[in-house]
Each structure stands twice: as structure tokens, then as C-alpha cells.
TrEMBL record:
One of its GO terms (molecular function) is oxidoreductase activity. Belongs to the Gfo/Idh/MocA family. InterPro entries: Gfo/Idh/MocA-like_OxRdtase_N (IPR000683), Gfo/Idh/MocA_oxidoreduct (IPR051317), NAD(P)-bd_dom_sf (IPR036291), Xyl_isomerase-like_sf (IPR036237), Xyl_isomerase-like_TIM-brl (IPR013022). Residues 321-341 are annotated as: Disordered. This is TIM barrel protein.
Length: 614
């Protein structure tokens, strides 16, 4: 075979694996490394004994004149880099999986590639895993009879490992799916800038798929954090996955990076497998096959760009199925609405988050009465208030266990606890954290208002909260923290990772500001967004009368000044992680039934508003 001079673009963890595979492959000569971070390229070059490193892609290709390029960059920037690489005359390009984050981007890569003579492959290297090859051989040989059921699980998400899984099944059964049904969780993973499991990937955090093929054979796949544990792991939990193929005469299965086994009437056989891509052996075999194609010894590559496109069509169909709540054919294109399927699904999942209800509405009624009322309304998520002589739903002298027992009795979650500097704040933060809260709401203050400002005390509370996994969200309030500028100044003065904002639209309105502007400007700094209305035309002189004498005017759905359509739309876009909390004043003297009815009315109104978008 020929030897192909090669360049690697992207020298992170996966780039290193490709470097090992290429530098130990007789068919490729690794002549250069390129990475925007010079240190990554030079470190890998030292390990692989490569002399040429670059930080500029054009310079790297011009000087090394490679016949093959391996593009191992994040999927968020893959399409633009592929376009630049293919503007040069190269014989072969391999890109890391997933080819890109969205179907539209993968299709764009295909269009770019079709204008060239370059052979493009995608690093779907698991096809060469010992254990997967063994199961495929048993299926092809008819060892387990007619296939009746396929079940697969992986801790990796749809892009992290689902790409491998779906592509592997297409290859194993030599066809693409007819229909996909899917249920997903986790909007944050669909934003590649916020996916903390695998940065740069756009995927739901958890997905259940049913994939149906033309002969009515179905595969049931679970991808994500809630997938079952696999006892034998492949180094890290997100690589952990297995496949079970059940046939009429037996069963074949593998655990990735560990073993494969087959059980039939004739007995049981187990094959131990190497660790996941040990010494780059799977990736090296992918390149061996590529060399055979480039040399004309074979015409096809099982991990070519077209097969990766088919895989992504299936994954896009899965996300459309989750969004539309129906089976989707991968052959149907997503609608041209200006948003990708990933964006549609992210917005839908964010918009469907539970609406939290503040126990403030029930004043100083005891906790059991308050929780019982909320439970009767189907409320599962509450903002638990603890302010002496006002809304005392727990005291610091109580044990967290006693509070948790009441919450468990009524099936309540407590993502938010409001303390407002009342009593022993640190003890309340301890209780909030033990109850599973992730935000504690504090009173407003501003460095521009010295009478409210004690930075040393605030930093002490923030450090205490941060150690317990809590954010302190400071509520904007008349006379303490009024404007968007003051909120920004507060966050800048504190400069603390646990500092955030609780946004109260009526206080903004009375201070002469618009909530829409605050949401756009503060963005992800908003941890709590009050779903709280305001009288049209009201000003700050009427504030006390409104808060305590006219509570009906604050209830969402009462025809007030807040545009909840716009509020939901902007909140999903700019502060998707913020908790949405129904909260308003002045109901303490109402009878319980009247409070219940106001909550019921609010929820009906709010659900109708957000259903317009999600």
C-alpha cells in the first residue's frame, strides 16, 4: 500500500488518540500537528516525535502539503473548518464524530465535500471494536437465529455515544431505520455552551429511543445519565454501554471495552475485549480500511460521510419525535422554520419546566396546612419561605429531617428557599442545601446605597452558600436594588460565582424599568424569575396600597401590565436555568380557598401563555 502524508488539526484528547493511531500505522506518515493552543500541539508533538507544529490551519496545510487531514475539532466549529480544509487539494479527510451538532450542519459538510474529489470519512471507530465485531459475526452466522429484540444502553448522550450506537446498528443490520420514537430530558445539554458533561456537544441529557426497521424489528436504546449502570466500565462512565441482541435461538451481547458473549442451546462462549480503543487500535483499523479505499483495493468505507449523514438523520428524527410527541421517519426533513431541531427541542424542554409556587401566599399558616393546600392543586415544586412573623414555614431550631419528612409526605421538591437575611442566614442556608435547594433568595442591596451595603458579610454568606452548592439570588426591590444597572453593579462588586439575581417584575415596573430589558441584559445571572403581575399605570407612590390592599391586581391573569408572552419567550432564550416562581403579596388574610383559587387561576393563565411558544 501507499503511504499518505498526514496532518492532524485539533490536538486535544481525541486528537492524541488519532495521533497514536496514525503514527503507528504503516499506511500513513504523520508530518504535522495544528491546534489554536500552541502548547497542546507541542506537547503532543513531543510525545509522538513530530517536528512540525502550527497554530494557523492555512499555514499548516501549505507547508506540510498533506494528502490526508484528520480534523479532530469540537463539533460546534466543524463545518467552517472542514470548508477551509477542503479548499485545499487533499485526497482524504477524516473528521471526528459527531460530524456536527445539527443535521443542517452535517448536510452543509456533505454539500461542501461533493464539490471536491476528497474522500471524507467520520471517526465512527467502534465498528472495529473486538466485542462489536464478535456480536456482528454471531448475528451474521445465524448463531442466534432470527433477531427478535435489540436492547442497548449507554451513559453517553445521543451525540457522545448515540452516534456510535445508531451507526453500529445500521452497519450490523445493513439498513437504516423506518421510524423513530423518542422521549428526552434535559434542555441544558442541547446548548453546547452549557453542556457540562461533554462541552461542545448539543444533545439531550437523557433519551429513550425506539428505532423500527423495515421488517418490524425494533431496537430499544437508552442514552444518557439515567441509563442503567453497566458493571464493567470502559474507563469513564459515559463510555459505559452494552448491547443485547435476542434471537429465536439464543442471545448475543457485549459490554464495551470488556467482553462479548453468546448463549445458545449449544452452550455459552465469552470473548474478552481490549479496553476501549486501547493504544488506538480501533482508530488504527479505521485508517487501515481508509488506506485500502484510497489505494483502490476496496470501493467502500463503512464509516464514510454518507453513513454518518444517515446516522444524523436518525438522531434528528429522534429529537423531532421528542418535540412533536409522535413517531418520525428519518427520511422526512425537518421543517425550514429558521431554527434547527436542536433549538426547537431546547426551547420546548426549557419552556416545559415545572412552575414553582411560593409558600409566601399562605402567610404564616403552618407548614402542614400550606403544603396540603399546594399538594391539592398538583404543585410539586415550591419556594419555601422562612421569614419570622411573616411567612414562617420553617424555623432554624427545627431539624432538616422534620422539614424533609413533611415535604416527602406531600411529594414536594424545594429548588428555592427564600430567607431574605432574616434570622441566622448561615443556618438557613444549611437547611436549604440539605433539602435539595440550589437557590436561596436574599434581600436587595446595592453598593450605590451604603445603608444596605456590607460586602464582607455578603462574601461570608456567599462563601457559605457556594460550599453547599447554593446560589444566593438577590431580589431587586424598591429603595434597595431598583434598576438593571444597580443589579449589574452588585454582581460586579461581589464578583462571586455564587451571586445571582431574583428578578421581580413589579418592582422593576414601579422603578420605571421594563422586565424585558432586564432579562436580556442580565441573562444567565437571573436564577429566579417571579411570575408576578403589576397594575397598569401604577407608580411607586401607590406601592404599599398595591402590595397589601389590592393583591388581586398582582395575580398573573388579572389583566395587569406584565406581558407574560414576551417574558416566557425571553426567559427561555436568555436565562433558561432560572426558576419560575409564582409569587405575589397581600393574600395573608384571605381564606385558604381564596388563595387556592388564585393559584389555580394563575397556573391556568401561565400554562396557556407558555403553550403558545412551547
Amino acid at each position: 500500500m501507499s503511504q499518505y502524508q498526514s496532518l492532524i488539526v485539533g490536538c486535544g484528547a481525541r486528537g492524541r488518540q488519532h495521533g497514536v493511531a496514525l503514527s503507528t500505522n504503516d499506511h500513513f506518515e504523520l508530518v504535522g500537528l495544528c491546534d489554536l493552543v500552541e502548547e497542546r500541539a507541542t506537547n503532543l508533538a513531543a510525545d509522538l516525535d513530530i517536528s512540525k507544529t502550527y497554530t494557523d490551519l492555512h499555514e499548516a496545510i501549505k507547508e506540510t502539503e498533506p494528502m490526508h487531514v484528520s480534523c479532530i475539532t469540537p463539533p460546534t466549529i466543524r463545518a467552517s473548518i472542514v470548508e477551509e480544509i477542503l479548499s485545499h487539494d487533499i485526497a482524504s479527510l477524516t473528521i471526528e464524530k459527531p460530524a456536527a451538532n445539527t443535521l443542517e450542519e452535517v448536510e452543509e459538510i456533505v454539500r461542501i465535500a461533493e464539490k471536491t474529489d476528497t474522500r471524507v470519512t467520520v471517526c465512527l471507530e467502534t465498528l472495529w471494536a473486538d466485542e462489536i465485531r464478535a456480536v456482528n459475526r454471531w448475528v451474521e452466522d445465524g448463531r442466534i437465529g432470527n433477531i427478535e429484540r435489540i436492547v442497548g444502553t449507554t451513559k453517553g448522550g445521543l451525540m457522545a455515544q448515540g452516534t456510535h450506537f445508531v451507526h453500529m446498528l445500521d452497519w450490523m443490520f445493513d439498513e437504516t431505520p423506518e421510524l423513530v420514537r423518542c422521549f428526552v430530558e434535559g434542555p441544558s445539554g442541547l446548548d453546547p455552551t452549557r453542556n457540562d458533561r461533554i462541552p461542545g456537544h448539543s444533545e439531550p441529557m437523557d433519551a429513550l429511543l425506539e428505532i423500527t426497521y423495515s421488517n418490524d424489528l425494533s431496537a430499544f436504546l437508552h442514552h444518557g445519565v439515567h441509563a442503567p449502570d453497566v458493571p464493567a466500565q470502559a474507563g469513564t462512565f459515559w463510555l459505559e454501554y452494552r448491547l443485547d441482541v435476542v434471537g429465536s435461538d439464543g442471545q448475543a451481547s457485549f459490554v464495551h471495552g470488556d467482553h462479548a458473549e453468546v448463549i445458545t442451546a449449544d452452550g455459552h462462549r465469552r470473548i474478552d475485549a481490549r479496553d476501549f480503543d486501547e493504544d488506538g487500535y480501533m482508530t488504527r483499523n479505521l485508517y487501515d480500511t481508509l488506506a485500502a479505499v484510497l489505494d483502490g483495493e476496496r470501493t467502500d468505507h463503512p464509516a464514510d460521510l454518507e453513513s454518518a449523514l444517515e446516522t444524523h438523520r436518525t438522531l434528528d428524527a429522534a429529537m423531532r419525535s421528542a418535540h412533536q410527541s409522535r413517531a418520525i421517519s428519518p427520511k422526512r426533513r425537518p421543517p425550514a422554520t429558521g431554527r434547527t431541531t436542536n433549538e426547537h427541542l431546547r426551547r420546548a424542554l426549557t419552556g416545559r419546566k415545572p412552575i414553582t409556587v411560593s409558600t409566601l401566599l399562605y402567610g404564616d399558616r403552618n407548614r402542614e396546612t400550606t403544603l396540603e393546600s399546594l399538594a391539592s392543586l398538583g404543585i410539586e415544586s415550591i419556594d419555601l419561605w422562612s421569614v419570622s412573623s411573616f411567612a414562617t414555614h420553617f424555623e432554624t431550631r427545627e431539624s432538616a429531617e422534620a422539614i424533609a419528612a413533611d415535604l416527602n409526605q406531600f411529594g414536594m421538591e424545594v429548588p428555592v428557599v427564600s430567607v431574605f437575611d432574616d434570622g441566622d442566614v448561615t443556618e438557613k442556608l444549611d437547611i436549604a442545601a440539605s433539602l435539595g435547594a440550589n437557590v436561596a433568595v436574599m434581600g436587595g442591596r446595592s453598593p450605590d446605597r451604603p445603608e444596605t451595603w456590607n460586602r464582607a458579610q455578603l462574601i461570608e454568606w456567599l462563601d457559605h452558600a457556594d460550599d453547599r452548592g447554593l446560589t444566593l439570588a438577590f431580589e431587586n426591590h424598591l429603595d434597595t436594588l431598583e434598576t438593571t444597572a444597580e443589579m449589574r453593579a452588585l454582581l460586579e462588586a461581589l464578583d462571586h460565582p455564587a451571586a445571582g439575581i431574583c428578578l421581580a417584575p413589579p418592582h422593576l415596573s414601579l422603578a420605571g424599568e421594563r422586565v424585558e430589558r432586564a432579562i436580556v441584559e442580565l441573562g444567565a445571572a437571573i436564577d429566579v424569575l417571579y411570575l408576578w403581575d403589576m397594575e397598569c399605570g401604577a407608580d411607586r407612590t401607590a406601592a404599599d396600597a398595591i402590595w397589601w390592599d389590592r393583591p388581586d391586581s398582582q395575580v398573573p391573569g388579572g389583566g395587569g401590565a406584565i406581558d407574560f408572552d414576551r417574558l416566557f419567550d425571553l426567559a427561555v432564550e436568555y436565562c433558561p436555568d432560572a426558576h419560575w416562581v409564582v409569587c405575589y403579596h397581600g393574600t395573608e388574610e384571605w381564606e385558604g380557598k381564596r388563595i387556592d383559587e388564585s393559584v389555580r387561576r394563575s397556573l391556568r393563565f401561565l400554562e396557556e401563555r407558555r403553550s403558545r411558544f412551547f
